[in-house]
Amino acid sequence: xxxxxxxxxxxxxxxxxxxxxxxxxxxxxxxxxxxxxxxxxxxxxxxxxxxxxxxxxxxxxxxxxxxxxxxxxxxxxxxxxxxxxxxxxxxxxxxxxxxxxxxxxxxxxxxxxxxxxxxxxxxxxxxxxxxxxxxxxxxxxxxxxxxxxxxxxxxxxxxxxxxxxxxxxxxxxxxxxxxxxxxxxxxxxxxxxxxxxxxxxxxxxxxxxxxxxx
Length: 214
Hints:
Layout: E1 6-10, H1 15-27, E2 32-35, H2 42-58, E3 62-66, H3 69-74, E4 79-82, H4 89-95, E5 101-106, H5 109-117, E6 122-125, H6 142-152, E7 159-162, H7 170-175, E8 180-183, H8 185-189, H9 193-201, H10 204-213
Parallel strand pairs: 1-2, 1-8, 2-3, 3-4, 4-5, 5-6, 6-7, 7-8
Helix pairs in contact: 1-2
């Protein structure tokens, strides 16, 4: 299973804003979009997810549903993303289609090892820096924290960074064996930055572009 290197976390103050952001990300070249609707009812998430997958399918962009794995299966999304407080990945795996991916949040080496034992497809490790977006945020890792974990954690599973990451951070993160990133704010503020993120990450979309021009 190939996991894209850039994940756009689509958030917004309303379903309309979320869908508009997904549309903008897709038209700007996003390979994967994650739908996040914290504190929304399952009914509302399902309604937005059905609209979101119409957009992402049109652009051949992957859609990941945060938390709601039953909705991910219902609309045949590309996968589900699980926070620490969500359902156990092992139980979720039994419910999903075999081709659907599972990603999970980790803050420590122990978190990573637990997720790997539960056969997730990729890990979002962070936060890289304090974004002040959540009420209870795990300790900031920074570059030293990433390096300390990746030096010990030898796994072929992709490790993606998250938490206030900007374009300037990518070269150092790649040196720390981080294979990709999940971004919300930096992309929402400038959807044109997706192309630069993809280029710096050497994402498959840029490889396809090079192939097209040859």
